Amino acid sequence: MSQAALTVRDLDVRIASADPPFTVVADMSLAVSPGETLCIVGESGCGKSMTALALMRLLPQGVEVARGSVSLGDVELTSLSERQAEDLRGNRIAMIFQEPLTALNPVMTVGAQIAEAISRHRGLSGREAWAAAIEALRQTQMPDPERRAGQYPHELSGGMRQRAVIALALCCDPQVIIADEPTTALDVTVQAQILGLIGQMQARHGTALVLITHDLGVVAETADRVVVMYAGRCVEEASVENLFDAPLHPYTHGLMGAVPRRGADHLTEIGGTVPPLWNLPHGCAFAPRCPRATEKCREERPPLLEYRPDHRVACWNVRHAA
Amino acid sequence: MADTKLRARRFRLPRRLRNAALLIGAAISSTIILLAVFAPFLATHDLAAMDMVNRFSGPSVEHLLGTDNFGRDIWSRLIYGARISLTIAIIAVVCSAIIGTIVGLVSGYFGGWVDLLLMRLTDIFLGFPPLLLVLAVVAVLGPGLFNVAASLVVVSWTEYARVVRSTTLSLREQNYVQAARALGASPWRILLREILPNSLGPITVLASLGLGTAIVWESALSFLGFGLPPPAPTWGWSLSYGTRFIRDEPWLSVVSGAAIMVTVLGFNLLGDGLRDVLDPRHKNRG
Fold first, then answer.
1. Domain annotation for chain A: domains and CATH numbers
2. Which residues in chain B touch residue A56, judged by CB atoms under 8 angstroms apart?
3. Is the C-alpha dihedral spanning B34, B37, B40, B43 positive or negative?
4. Residue contact A61–B198, C-beta within 8 A
Protein backbone atom coordinates (compact mmCIF):
# COMPACT_ATOMS: atom_id res chain seq x y z
CA MET A 1 0.00 0.00 0.00
CA SER A 2 1.29 3.43 -0.86
CA GLN A 3 1.56 6.24 1.64
CA ALA A 4 -1.90 6.72 3.15
CA ALA A 5 -3.70 9.97 2.37
CA LEU A 6 -5.47 9.92 5.72
CA THR A 7 -4.45 7.99 8.81
CA VAL A 8 -6.38 7.79 12.04
CA ARG A 9 -4.81 6.17 15.06
CA ASP A 10 -6.53 5.26 18.33
CA LEU A 11 -9.04 8.06 18.07
CA ASP A 12 -11.32 8.69 21.04
CA VAL A 13 -14.06 11.30 20.77
CA ARG A 14 -15.69 12.36 23.98
CA ILE A 15 -18.71 14.47 24.84
CA ALA A 16 -17.05 16.53 27.50
CA SER A 17 -20.02 18.77 28.20
CA ALA A 18 -22.22 15.86 29.29
CA ASP A 19 -22.38 14.96 32.94
CA PRO A 20 -20.64 12.62 33.34
CA PRO A 21 -18.67 12.88 30.09
CA PHE A 22 -18.88 9.81 27.88
CA THR A 23 -17.06 8.50 24.86
CA VAL A 24 -18.89 8.32 21.52
CA VAL A 25 -16.02 7.03 19.39
CA ALA A 26 -13.40 4.77 20.91
CA ASP A 27 -10.15 3.27 19.65
CA MET A 28 -10.89 4.19 16.07
CA SER A 29 -8.04 3.43 13.69
CA LEU A 30 -8.19 3.63 9.93
CA ALA A 31 -6.11 4.47 6.90
CA VAL A 32 -7.16 5.43 3.39
CA SER A 33 -4.78 5.49 0.44
CA PRO A 34 -5.10 7.82 -2.54
CA GLY A 35 -7.79 6.56 -4.88
CA GLU A 36 -9.17 4.18 -2.31
CA THR A 37 -12.72 4.15 -0.94
CA LEU A 38 -13.32 3.28 2.67
CA CYS A 39 -16.87 2.81 3.82
CA ILE A 40 -17.90 3.25 7.42
CA VAL A 41 -21.13 1.36 8.10
CA GLY A 42 -23.32 1.19 11.13
CA GLU A 43 -26.71 2.07 12.58
CA SER A 44 -27.60 5.64 13.39
CA GLY A 45 -26.05 6.82 16.61
CA CYS A 46 -23.07 4.51 16.41
CA GLY A 47 -20.54 7.31 16.00
CA LYS A 48 -20.15 7.44 12.22
CA SER A 49 -20.91 11.12 11.87
CA MET A 50 -18.88 12.04 14.93
CA THR A 51 -15.92 10.25 13.39
CA ALA A 52 -16.40 12.25 10.20
CA LEU A 53 -16.62 15.54 12.05
CA ALA A 54 -13.54 14.66 14.08
CA LEU A 55 -11.62 14.05 10.85
CA MET A 56 -12.68 17.51 9.61
CA ARG A 57 -11.96 19.07 12.99
CA LEU A 58 -15.54 20.27 13.01
CA LEU A 59 -16.76 18.70 16.23
CA PRO A 60 -19.54 20.72 17.85
CA GLN A 61 -18.92 22.64 21.03
CA GLY A 62 -18.52 20.39 24.03
CA VAL A 63 -17.28 17.46 21.98
CA GLU A 64 -13.56 16.84 21.83
CA VAL A 65 -10.90 14.48 20.59
CA ALA A 66 -9.79 12.93 23.83
CA ARG A 67 -7.00 10.76 22.46
CA GLY A 68 -5.35 9.65 19.27
CA SER A 69 -4.14 11.24 16.09
CA VAL A 70 -5.55 12.14 12.69
CA SER A 71 -2.98 12.81 10.01
CA LEU A 72 -3.53 14.09 6.54
CA GLY A 73 -0.46 12.99 4.58
CA ASP A 74 2.27 14.16 6.92
CA VAL A 75 0.22 16.88 8.62
CA GLU A 76 -1.11 16.10 12.08
CA LEU A 77 -4.60 17.59 12.19
CA THR A 78 -5.26 17.39 15.90
CA SER A 79 -2.38 19.71 16.76
CA LEU A 80 -3.14 22.44 14.20
CA SER A 81 -4.35 25.85 15.21
CA GLU A 82 -7.88 26.79 14.19
CA ARG A 83 -6.50 29.10 11.48
CA GLN A 84 -4.29 26.38 10.03
CA ALA A 85 -7.20 23.96 10.06
CA GLU A 86 -9.29 26.49 8.11
CA ASP A 87 -6.60 26.58 5.43
CA LEU A 88 -6.75 22.81 5.02
CA ARG A 89 -10.50 22.43 5.09
CA GLY A 90 -12.02 22.60 1.64
CA ASN A 91 -8.52 22.64 0.22
CA ARG A 92 -6.86 19.34 1.13
CA ILE A 93 -9.74 17.68 2.96
CA ALA A 94 -13.36 18.28 2.06
CA MET A 95 -16.72 17.04 3.13
CA ILE A 96 -19.91 16.22 1.25
CA PHE A 97 -22.90 16.61 3.47
CA GLN A 98 -25.94 14.49 3.86
CA GLU A 99 -28.70 16.90 2.99
CA PRO A 100 -28.27 18.62 -0.36
CA LEU A 101 -31.35 20.67 0.48
CA THR A 102 -29.74 22.34 3.44
CA ALA A 103 -26.02 22.23 2.70
CA LEU A 104 -26.19 25.27 0.43
CA ASN A 105 -26.67 28.83 1.57
CA PRO A 106 -30.18 29.78 0.43
CA VAL A 107 -29.37 33.44 -0.20
CA MET A 108 -26.31 33.01 -2.42
CA THR A 109 -26.22 31.72 -5.95
CA VAL A 110 -24.63 28.32 -6.36
CA GLY A 111 -21.85 29.74 -8.50
CA ALA A 112 -21.04 32.44 -5.97
CA GLN A 113 -20.69 29.87 -3.22
CA ILE A 114 -18.29 27.76 -5.24
CA ALA A 115 -16.38 30.81 -6.49
CA GLU A 116 -15.98 31.98 -2.92
CA ALA A 117 -14.46 28.69 -1.81
CA ILE A 118 -12.12 28.76 -4.80
CA SER A 119 -10.94 32.30 -4.23
CA ARG A 120 -10.55 31.49 -0.54
CA HIS A 121 -8.05 28.70 -1.22
CA ARG A 122 -6.66 29.52 -4.65
CA GLY A 123 -6.50 33.27 -4.35
CA LEU A 124 -8.15 33.77 -7.74
CA SER A 125 -9.81 37.02 -8.75
CA GLY A 126 -13.59 37.26 -8.97
CA ARG A 127 -13.82 36.55 -12.68
CA GLU A 128 -11.31 33.68 -12.67
CA ALA A 129 -13.01 32.14 -9.64
CA TRP A 130 -16.39 32.36 -11.38
CA ALA A 131 -14.99 30.62 -14.45
CA ALA A 132 -13.46 27.95 -12.21
CA ALA A 133 -16.80 27.53 -10.44
CA ILE A 134 -18.56 26.92 -13.75
CA GLU A 135 -15.85 24.43 -14.67
CA ALA A 136 -16.34 22.67 -11.32
CA LEU A 137 -20.08 22.45 -11.99
CA ARG A 138 -19.41 21.15 -15.51
CA GLN A 139 -17.22 18.39 -14.06
CA THR A 140 -20.13 17.22 -11.95
CA GLN A 141 -22.15 16.97 -15.20
CA MET A 142 -24.47 19.71 -14.12
CA PRO A 143 -26.66 20.48 -17.11
CA ASP A 144 -26.16 23.98 -18.48
CA PRO A 145 -23.59 25.02 -15.85
CA GLU A 146 -23.33 28.66 -16.98
CA ARG A 147 -27.00 29.24 -16.25
CA ARG A 148 -27.17 27.06 -13.13
CA ALA A 149 -24.25 28.89 -11.56
CA GLY A 150 -26.32 32.05 -11.50
CA GLN A 151 -29.28 30.39 -9.80
CA TYR A 152 -30.18 30.03 -6.18
CA PRO A 153 -30.37 26.61 -4.48
CA HIS A 154 -34.18 26.64 -4.34
CA GLU A 155 -34.28 26.86 -8.12
CA LEU A 156 -32.43 23.54 -8.51
CA SER A 157 -33.70 19.99 -8.17
CA GLY A 158 -32.40 17.70 -5.41
CA GLY A 159 -29.99 15.93 -7.73
CA MET A 160 -28.66 19.20 -9.13
CA ARG A 161 -28.23 20.54 -5.65
CA GLN A 162 -26.24 17.48 -4.65
CA ARG A 163 -24.11 17.99 -7.76
CA ALA A 164 -23.51 21.55 -6.63
CA VAL A 165 -22.57 20.29 -3.16
CA ILE A 166 -20.10 17.88 -4.74
CA ALA A 167 -18.69 20.63 -6.96
CA LEU A 168 -18.28 22.72 -3.82
CA ALA A 169 -16.42 19.94 -2.04
CA LEU A 170 -14.22 19.09 -5.01
CA CYS A 171 -13.52 22.55 -6.41
CA CYS A 172 -10.07 22.73 -4.84
CA ASP A 173 -9.00 19.15 -5.65
CA PRO A 174 -8.80 17.84 -2.10
CA GLN A 175 -6.74 14.74 -1.35
CA VAL A 176 -9.37 13.37 0.97
CA ILE A 177 -13.15 13.58 0.70
CA ILE A 178 -15.40 12.63 3.53
CA ALA A 179 -18.94 11.96 2.37
CA ASP A 180 -21.51 11.62 5.11
CA GLU A 181 -24.50 9.74 3.68
CA PRO A 182 -24.28 11.73 0.44
CA THR A 183 -27.19 9.95 -1.22
CA THR A 184 -29.57 9.17 1.61
CA ALA A 185 -31.87 12.08 0.84
CA LEU A 186 -32.04 11.37 -2.89
CA ASP A 187 -34.21 9.22 -5.13
CA VAL A 188 -32.75 5.83 -5.92
CA THR A 189 -32.11 6.70 -9.57
CA VAL A 190 -30.35 9.93 -8.69
CA GLN A 191 -28.51 8.08 -5.94
CA ALA A 192 -26.84 5.79 -8.48
CA GLN A 193 -25.86 8.75 -10.67
CA ILE A 194 -24.38 10.65 -7.75
CA LEU A 195 -22.40 7.65 -6.51
CA GLY A 196 -21.13 7.06 -10.03
CA LEU A 197 -20.16 10.70 -10.25
CA ILE A 198 -18.27 10.65 -6.96
CA GLY A 199 -16.48 7.53 -8.18
CA GLN A 200 -15.48 9.18 -11.46
CA MET A 201 -14.23 12.33 -9.78
CA GLN A 202 -12.30 10.20 -7.34
CA ALA A 203 -10.69 8.16 -10.10
CA ARG A 204 -9.78 11.27 -12.07
CA HIS A 205 -8.06 13.03 -9.21
CA GLY A 206 -6.83 10.06 -7.20
CA THR A 207 -8.76 11.24 -4.19
CA ALA A 208 -9.13 9.15 -1.08
CA LEU A 209 -12.77 8.78 -0.14
CA VAL A 210 -14.30 8.05 3.23
CA LEU A 211 -17.92 7.20 2.60
CA ILE A 212 -20.23 7.04 5.58
CA THR A 213 -23.42 5.13 5.00
CA HIS A 214 -25.87 2.74 6.53
CA ASP A 215 -26.74 1.27 3.17
CA LEU A 216 -24.96 -2.01 2.51
CA GLY A 217 -25.96 -1.83 -1.15
CA VAL A 218 -23.92 1.35 -1.48
CA VAL A 219 -21.05 -0.36 0.32
CA ALA A 220 -21.02 -3.35 -2.00
CA GLU A 221 -21.05 -1.05 -5.01
CA THR A 222 -18.43 1.49 -4.07
CA ALA A 223 -16.15 0.35 -1.27
CA ASP A 224 -12.64 -1.05 -1.42
CA ARG A 225 -12.56 -1.54 2.31
CA VAL A 226 -15.21 -1.46 4.99
CA VAL A 227 -15.25 -0.54 8.65
CA VAL A 228 -18.29 -1.73 10.58
CA MET A 229 -19.01 0.37 13.64
CA TYR A 230 -21.10 -0.55 16.60
CA ALA A 231 -21.64 1.65 19.65
CA GLY A 232 -18.69 3.86 18.85
CA ARG A 233 -16.21 1.10 18.11
CA CYS A 234 -14.91 -0.61 15.05
CA VAL A 235 -16.12 -4.21 15.36
CA GLU A 236 -14.99 -5.44 11.98
CA GLU A 237 -12.68 -4.17 9.29
CA ALA A 238 -12.09 -5.94 6.00
CA SER A 239 -11.73 -5.62 2.29
CA VAL A 240 -15.14 -5.48 0.70
CA GLU A 241 -14.73 -8.97 -0.82
CA ASN A 242 -13.80 -10.52 2.50
CA LEU A 243 -16.63 -8.82 4.30
CA PHE A 244 -19.34 -9.88 1.91
CA ASP A 245 -17.86 -13.37 1.41
CA ALA A 246 -17.63 -14.17 5.05
CA PRO A 247 -18.82 -11.61 7.55
CA LEU A 248 -17.24 -12.61 10.85
CA HIS A 249 -18.85 -10.41 13.44
CA PRO A 250 -22.36 -11.38 14.47
CA TYR A 251 -23.41 -7.73 14.12
CA THR A 252 -22.26 -7.63 10.49
CA HIS A 253 -24.14 -10.86 9.98
CA GLY A 254 -27.21 -9.24 11.42
CA LEU A 255 -26.83 -6.14 9.22
CA MET A 256 -26.63 -8.28 6.11
CA GLY A 257 -29.64 -10.32 7.16
CA ALA A 258 -31.60 -7.10 7.52
CA VAL A 259 -31.14 -6.08 3.87
CA PRO A 260 -34.11 -6.92 1.64
CA ARG A 261 -33.05 -9.44 -0.96
CA ARG A 262 -34.70 -11.34 -3.75
CA GLY A 263 -35.34 -14.92 -2.84
CA ALA A 264 -35.22 -14.40 0.89
CA ASP A 265 -38.72 -14.85 2.21
CA HIS A 266 -38.27 -12.71 5.29
CA LEU A 267 -35.93 -10.15 6.76
CA THR A 268 -34.08 -11.08 9.90
CA GLU A 269 -33.89 -8.26 12.33
CA ILE A 270 -31.35 -7.76 15.05
CA GLY A 271 -33.21 -8.06 18.30
CA GLY A 272 -32.95 -5.30 20.88
CA THR A 273 -31.52 -1.83 20.36
CA VAL A 274 -28.12 -0.15 20.49
CA PRO A 275 -27.21 0.37 24.14
CA PRO A 276 -26.96 4.03 25.16
CA LEU A 277 -23.38 5.21 24.74
CA TRP A 278 -23.32 6.72 28.22
CA ASN A 279 -24.19 3.39 29.73
CA LEU A 280 -22.36 0.71 27.78
CA PRO A 281 -22.20 -2.81 29.11
CA HIS A 282 -18.98 -3.85 30.71
CA GLY A 283 -17.90 -6.40 28.13
CA CYS A 284 -18.70 -6.47 24.44
CA ALA A 285 -21.25 -3.77 23.61
CA PHE A 286 -23.08 -6.14 21.29
CA ALA A 287 -23.37 -8.96 23.82
CA PRO A 288 -26.94 -8.13 24.95
CA ARG A 289 -28.20 -8.55 21.36
CA CYS A 290 -25.80 -11.24 20.24
CA PRO A 291 -27.02 -14.76 19.52
CA ARG A 292 -23.56 -16.16 20.26
CA ALA A 293 -22.85 -14.25 23.46
CA THR A 294 -21.16 -16.19 26.21
CA GLU A 295 -20.18 -15.40 29.77
CA LYS A 296 -16.83 -14.13 28.55
CA CYS A 297 -18.47 -11.63 26.17
CA ARG A 298 -20.33 -10.02 29.04
CA GLU A 299 -17.21 -9.72 31.12
CA GLU A 300 -14.42 -8.75 28.82
CA ARG A 301 -14.40 -6.61 25.70
CA PRO A 302 -12.94 -8.44 22.70
CA PRO A 303 -9.97 -6.69 21.05
CA LEU A 304 -9.87 -6.02 17.31
CA LEU A 305 -7.62 -8.80 16.02
CA GLU A 306 -6.53 -9.96 12.61
CA TYR A 307 -8.48 -13.09 11.82
CA ARG A 308 -7.09 -13.57 8.34
CA PRO A 309 -5.23 -11.27 5.95
CA ASP A 310 -7.23 -8.11 5.30
CA HIS A 311 -9.87 -9.01 7.81
CA ARG A 312 -9.94 -7.91 11.41
CA VAL A 313 -12.73 -8.51 13.85
CA ALA A 314 -13.51 -7.84 17.50
CA CYS A 315 -15.35 -10.92 18.70
CA TRP A 316 -14.56 -13.79 21.07
CA ASN A 317 -16.61 -16.35 19.19
CA VAL A 318 -15.56 -15.90 15.58
CA ARG A 319 -14.43 -19.44 15.02
CA HIS A 320 -17.72 -20.91 16.03
CA ALA A 321 -19.46 -18.84 13.40
CA ALA A 322 -17.14 -19.14 10.44
CA MET B 1 -39.06 22.42 -16.79
CA ALA B 2 -37.11 25.63 -16.68
CA ASP B 3 -40.07 27.48 -18.13
CA THR B 4 -42.52 26.29 -15.49
CA LYS B 5 -40.08 27.35 -12.82
CA LEU B 6 -39.78 30.83 -14.19
CA ARG B 7 -43.51 31.09 -14.45
CA ALA B 8 -43.95 29.93 -10.86
CA ARG B 9 -41.63 32.67 -9.74
CA ARG B 10 -43.43 35.32 -11.70
CA PHE B 11 -46.67 34.32 -10.06
CA ARG B 12 -45.36 34.69 -6.56
CA LEU B 13 -45.13 38.44 -6.69
CA PRO B 14 -48.83 39.29 -6.98
CA ARG B 15 -49.63 36.93 -4.12
CA ARG B 16 -47.24 38.82 -1.92
CA LEU B 17 -48.72 42.11 -3.02
CA ARG B 18 -52.14 40.83 -2.14
CA ASN B 19 -51.02 41.14 1.46
CA ALA B 20 -53.20 44.10 2.41
CA ALA B 21 -51.23 45.28 5.43
CA LEU B 22 -48.06 45.42 3.41
CA LEU B 23 -49.76 47.30 0.61
CA ILE B 24 -51.44 49.91 2.79
CA GLY B 25 -48.38 50.27 5.00
CA ALA B 26 -46.11 50.73 2.02
CA ALA B 27 -48.51 53.29 0.51
CA ILE B 28 -48.71 55.37 3.69
CA SER B 29 -44.99 55.17 4.43
CA SER B 30 -43.93 56.05 0.93
CA THR B 31 -46.39 58.98 0.80
CA ILE B 32 -44.98 60.38 4.04
CA ILE B 33 -41.43 59.88 2.83
CA LEU B 34 -42.19 61.59 -0.48
CA LEU B 35 -43.87 64.51 1.32
CA ALA B 36 -40.80 64.89 3.52
CA VAL B 37 -38.34 64.64 0.64
CA PHE B 38 -40.19 67.14 -1.54
CA ALA B 39 -41.22 69.43 1.34
CA PRO B 40 -39.49 72.51 -0.15
CA PHE B 41 -41.57 72.19 -3.33
CA LEU B 42 -44.81 71.31 -1.59
CA ALA B 43 -44.73 73.96 1.13
CA THR B 44 -47.07 76.82 0.29
CA HIS B 45 -45.80 79.29 2.85
CA ASP B 46 -42.66 80.32 4.65
CA LEU B 47 -42.48 78.31 7.87
CA ALA B 48 -41.86 81.30 10.06
CA ALA B 49 -44.20 83.75 8.32
CA MET B 50 -46.70 84.89 10.93
CA ASP B 51 -50.06 86.36 10.16
CA MET B 52 -51.60 87.44 13.44
CA VAL B 53 -54.84 88.47 11.77
CA ASN B 54 -55.42 84.98 10.42
CA ARG B 55 -54.75 82.96 13.58
CA PHE B 56 -56.53 79.63 13.80
CA SER B 57 -58.12 79.96 10.41
CA GLY B 58 -59.64 76.69 9.33
CA PRO B 59 -58.63 74.87 6.15
CA SER B 60 -58.94 77.02 3.05
CA VAL B 61 -57.50 77.26 -0.42
CA GLU B 62 -54.90 79.68 0.90
CA HIS B 63 -54.01 77.54 3.91
CA LEU B 64 -54.64 73.86 3.13
CA LEU B 65 -54.75 72.81 6.77
CA GLY B 66 -55.40 76.19 8.29
CA THR B 67 -53.08 78.21 10.48
CA ASP B 68 -51.74 77.88 14.00
CA ASN B 69 -51.75 80.26 16.95
CA PHE B 70 -49.28 82.59 15.23
CA GLY B 71 -51.09 82.38 11.92
CA ARG B 72 -48.39 80.14 10.42
CA ASP B 73 -49.36 77.68 7.69
CA ILE B 74 -49.93 74.25 9.28
CA TRP B 75 -49.55 72.27 6.05
CA SER B 76 -46.08 73.67 5.38
CA ARG B 77 -45.01 73.11 8.96
CA LEU B 78 -46.45 69.59 8.91
CA ILE B 79 -44.44 68.41 5.92
CA TYR B 80 -41.26 70.01 7.28
CA GLY B 81 -42.06 68.31 10.57
CA ALA B 82 -42.17 65.01 8.67
CA ARG B 83 -38.60 65.73 7.56
CA ILE B 84 -37.45 66.13 11.14
CA SER B 85 -39.30 63.08 12.43
CA LEU B 86 -38.16 60.86 9.59
CA THR B 87 -34.56 62.02 9.67
CA ILE B 88 -34.30 61.34 13.39
CA ALA B 89 -36.15 58.04 13.07
CA ILE B 90 -34.01 56.83 10.18
CA ILE B 91 -30.73 57.77 11.84
CA ALA B 92 -31.86 56.14 15.08
CA VAL B 93 -33.05 52.96 13.37
CA VAL B 94 -30.00 52.55 11.15
CA CYS B 95 -27.58 53.07 14.04
CA SER B 96 -29.58 50.80 16.37
CA ALA B 97 -29.79 48.11 13.72
CA ILE B 98 -26.06 48.24 13.03
CA ILE B 99 -25.02 48.20 16.68
CA GLY B 100 -27.63 45.62 17.68
CA THR B 101 -26.84 43.37 14.74
CA ILE B 102 -23.12 43.35 15.43
CA VAL B 103 -23.70 42.60 19.11
CA GLY B 104 -26.26 39.91 18.28
CA LEU B 105 -24.10 38.22 15.66
CA VAL B 106 -21.01 38.12 17.84
CA SER B 107 -22.93 37.08 20.92
CA GLY B 108 -24.89 34.34 19.19
CA TYR B 109 -22.07 32.93 17.12
CA PHE B 110 -19.19 32.88 19.58
CA GLY B 111 -21.23 32.09 22.66
CA GLY B 112 -19.44 31.42 25.93
CA TRP B 113 -18.21 34.37 27.97
CA VAL B 114 -18.54 36.81 25.04
CA ASP B 115 -22.23 36.00 24.88
CA LEU B 116 -22.56 36.23 28.64
CA LEU B 117 -20.90 39.64 28.74
CA LEU B 118 -22.82 41.14 25.82
CA MET B 119 -26.18 39.81 26.94
CA ARG B 120 -25.73 41.10 30.49
CA LEU B 121 -24.85 44.45 28.95
CA THR B 122 -28.10 44.46 26.98
CA ASP B 123 -29.93 43.42 30.14
CA ILE B 124 -28.53 46.48 31.88
CA PHE B 125 -29.82 48.71 29.09
CA LEU B 126 -33.17 46.96 29.16
CA GLY B 127 -33.33 47.28 32.93
CA PHE B 128 -33.54 51.08 32.82
CA PRO B 129 -36.95 52.64 32.33
CA PRO B 130 -36.60 53.73 28.70
CA LEU B 131 -38.18 57.15 29.03
CA LEU B 132 -35.81 57.99 31.86
CA LEU B 133 -32.85 56.79 29.84
CA VAL B 134 -33.82 58.82 26.78
CA LEU B 135 -34.41 61.97 28.84
CA ALA B 136 -31.12 61.49 30.65
CA VAL B 137 -29.20 61.17 27.40
CA VAL B 138 -30.85 64.25 25.88
CA ALA B 139 -30.34 66.17 29.10
CA VAL B 140 -26.63 65.36 29.02
CA LEU B 141 -26.09 65.87 25.27
CA GLY B 142 -28.46 68.80 24.88
CA PRO B 143 -31.20 69.08 22.23
CA GLY B 144 -30.40 68.65 18.56
CA LEU B 145 -31.16 66.31 15.69
CA PHE B 146 -28.27 63.91 16.27
CA ASN B 147 -28.55 64.00 20.03
CA VAL B 148 -32.20 63.05 19.93
CA ALA B 149 -31.36 60.25 17.49
CA ALA B 150 -28.53 59.10 19.77
CA SER B 151 -30.84 58.98 22.75
CA LEU B 152 -33.22 56.74 20.79
CA VAL B 153 -30.36 54.43 19.79
CA VAL B 154 -29.60 53.93 23.47
CA VAL B 155 -33.04 52.42 24.08
CA SER B 156 -33.61 50.60 20.83
CA TRP B 157 -30.41 48.72 19.91
CA THR B 158 -31.12 46.02 22.49
CA GLU B 159 -34.08 44.70 20.57
CA TYR B 160 -31.97 44.09 17.46
CA ALA B 161 -29.26 42.49 19.57
CA ARG B 162 -31.66 39.99 21.09
CA VAL B 163 -33.45 39.10 17.88
CA VAL B 164 -30.25 38.77 15.85
CA ARG B 165 -28.65 36.71 18.59
CA SER B 166 -31.51 34.24 18.55
CA THR B 167 -31.56 33.94 14.75
CA THR B 168 -27.78 33.50 14.83
CA LEU B 169 -28.12 30.74 17.39
CA SER B 170 -30.42 28.81 15.12
CA LEU B 171 -28.64 29.66 11.86
CA ARG B 172 -25.22 28.58 13.07
CA GLU B 173 -26.52 25.03 13.47
CA GLN B 174 -27.69 24.99 9.86
CA ASN B 175 -26.08 22.54 7.53
CA TYR B 176 -24.86 25.19 5.15
CA VAL B 177 -23.01 26.96 7.92
CA GLN B 178 -21.37 23.68 8.83
CA ALA B 179 -20.65 23.18 5.14
CA ALA B 180 -19.04 26.60 4.89
CA ARG B 181 -16.86 25.71 7.83
CA ALA B 182 -15.94 22.47 6.09
CA LEU B 183 -14.76 24.61 3.18
CA GLY B 184 -12.40 26.55 5.37
CA ALA B 185 -14.47 29.67 5.98
CA SER B 186 -13.31 31.69 8.98
CA PRO B 187 -15.78 32.70 11.70
CA TRP B 188 -16.00 36.29 10.39
CA ARG B 189 -16.61 35.14 6.86
CA ILE B 190 -19.37 32.86 8.11
CA LEU B 191 -20.94 35.71 10.06
CA LEU B 192 -20.87 38.09 7.11
CA ARG B 193 -21.62 35.76 4.22
CA GLU B 194 -23.79 33.05 5.72
CA ILE B 195 -25.50 34.27 8.85
CA LEU B 196 -26.00 38.00 8.25
CA PRO B 197 -27.66 37.65 4.81
CA ASN B 198 -29.98 35.01 6.23
CA SER B 199 -30.93 37.23 9.18
CA LEU B 200 -31.84 40.23 7.02
CA GLY B 201 -35.53 39.27 7.03
CA PRO B 202 -36.13 39.72 10.76
CA ILE B 203 -33.83 42.76 10.82
CA THR B 204 -35.88 44.42 8.07
CA VAL B 205 -39.11 43.73 9.93
CA LEU B 206 -37.71 45.13 13.17
CA ALA B 207 -36.38 48.20 11.38
CA SER B 208 -39.69 49.11 9.77
CA LEU B 209 -41.54 48.62 13.04
CA GLY B 210 -38.71 50.53 14.70
CA LEU B 211 -39.29 53.55 12.45
CA GLY B 212 -42.80 53.86 13.86
CA THR B 213 -41.57 53.51 17.43
CA ALA B 214 -38.82 56.06 16.85
CA ILE B 215 -41.34 58.57 15.51
CA VAL B 216 -43.49 58.13 18.61
CA TRP B 217 -40.42 58.62 20.78
CA GLU B 218 -39.30 61.68 18.91
CA SER B 219 -42.79 63.16 19.20
CA ALA B 220 -42.92 62.35 22.88
CA LEU B 221 -39.60 64.08 23.43
CA SER B 222 -40.74 67.16 21.50
CA PHE B 223 -44.03 67.09 23.39
CA LEU B 224 -42.11 67.20 26.64
CA GLY B 225 -39.91 69.96 25.30
CA PHE B 226 -36.79 67.80 25.00
CA GLY B 227 -36.81 67.55 21.22
CA LEU B 228 -35.67 70.11 18.73
CA PRO B 229 -36.39 73.53 20.27
CA PRO B 230 -38.95 75.85 18.66
CA PRO B 231 -39.31 77.28 16.09
CA ALA B 232 -38.47 73.85 14.60
CA PRO B 233 -41.82 72.56 13.30
CA THR B 234 -41.80 69.24 15.16
CA TRP B 235 -45.05 67.34 15.38
CA GLY B 236 -44.70 66.68 19.07
CA TRP B 237 -44.26 70.35 19.93
CA SER B 238 -47.21 71.39 17.75
CA LEU B 239 -49.32 68.78 19.48
CA SER B 240 -48.20 69.89 22.90
CA TYR B 241 -48.58 73.60 22.11
CA GLY B 242 -51.98 73.01 20.57
CA THR B 243 -53.26 71.56 23.84
CA ARG B 244 -53.18 75.06 25.31
CA PHE B 245 -55.93 76.09 22.91
CA ILE B 246 -57.63 72.72 22.69
CA ARG B 247 -60.96 73.87 24.13
CA ASP B 248 -61.53 76.56 21.57
CA GLU B 249 -59.29 75.60 18.68
CA PRO B 250 -58.58 71.82 18.68
CA TRP B 251 -57.53 71.85 15.03
CA LEU B 252 -53.77 72.30 15.61
CA SER B 253 -53.49 69.37 18.04
CA VAL B 254 -55.75 67.18 15.95
CA VAL B 255 -53.72 67.69 12.79
CA SER B 256 -50.35 67.08 14.46
CA GLY B 257 -51.68 64.11 16.38
CA ALA B 258 -53.21 62.64 13.26
CA ALA B 259 -49.93 63.07 11.38
CA ILE B 260 -48.10 61.12 14.08
CA MET B 261 -50.77 58.46 14.24
CA VAL B 262 -51.03 57.91 10.50
CA THR B 263 -47.25 57.78 10.05
CA VAL B 264 -46.74 55.30 12.87
CA LEU B 265 -49.66 53.23 11.63
CA GLY B 266 -48.11 53.19 8.17
CA PHE B 267 -44.74 51.91 9.39
CA ASN B 268 -46.36 49.37 11.69
CA LEU B 269 -48.51 48.00 8.88
CA LEU B 270 -45.44 47.88 6.68
CA GLY B 271 -43.51 46.01 9.36
CA ASP B 272 -46.33 43.54 9.99
CA GLY B 273 -46.79 43.01 6.27
CA LEU B 274 -43.08 42.41 5.80
CA ARG B 275 -43.12 39.94 8.66
CA ASP B 276 -45.91 37.99 6.99
CA VAL B 277 -43.96 37.87 3.78
CA LEU B 278 -40.51 37.21 5.19
CA ASP B 279 -41.19 34.95 8.14
CA PRO B 280 -42.09 31.46 6.95
CA ARG B 281 -43.93 30.71 10.18
CA HIS B 282 -46.43 33.47 9.47
CA LYS B 283 -46.79 32.60 5.82
CA ASN B 284 -50.12 31.24 4.69
CA ARG B 285 -49.91 27.79 3.26
CA GLY B 286 -50.90 27.11 -0.33
1. 6-223 (3.40.50.300), 230-321 (no CATH)
2. 182
3. positive
4. no
> Positive or negative, the Cα torsion across B62, B66, B72, B78?
negative
Per CATH, the homologous superfamily of domain B18-43+60-278 is MetI-like (1.10.3720.10)
d(CA B268, CA B29): 9
Residues B147, B148, B149, B150, CA torsion sign: positive
Distance of alpha carbon A162 from alpha carbon A191, whole angstroms: 10
Q: What is the crossing angle of helices A110-122 and A126-139, to 10°?
A: 110
Q: What is the pLDDT of residues B241-271, one digit of tens each?
A: 888 887 887 888 888 889 999 999 999 888 8
What tens digit of pLDDT does each residue of B132-163 get? 889 999 889 888 888 899 999 999 999 999 99
The predicted pLDDT at position B15 comes to 55
Is ipTM > 0.90 here? no
The Cβ-side half-sphere exposure at A258, using a 13 Å CA radius, reads: 14
- What's the pTM value of the predicted model, to 2 decimals? 0.78
Alpha-carbon torsion A73, A74, A79, A81, what sign? Answer: negative
CA-CA distance, A50 to A60, in Å (whole number)?
9
CA distance A69 to chain B (A): 19
pLDDT tens-digit map of A23-75: 888 888 888 988 889 999 888 778 888 888 888 888 888 888 888 888 888 88
Q: Is the peptide bond before A20 cis (omega within 30 degrees of 0)?
A: yes
Phi, psi of A10 (to 5 degrees): 50, 45
Do the beta carbons of residue B123 and residue B64 sit within 8 Å?
Answer: no
Rg (CA), chain A: 20
Q: Do A89 and B181 touch (CB under 8 A)?
A: yes
To test the contact with chain A by mutation, choose from B183, B191, B194, B196 the residue with the greatest count of A C-beta atoms within 10 A, namely: B183
Alpha-carbon gap, residue A280 to A274, rounded angstroms: 9
Q: Are residues B198 and A88, on separate chains, in Cβ contact within 8 Å?
A: no
Supply angle C-alpha A189, A195, A196, rounded to 5.
Answer: 90
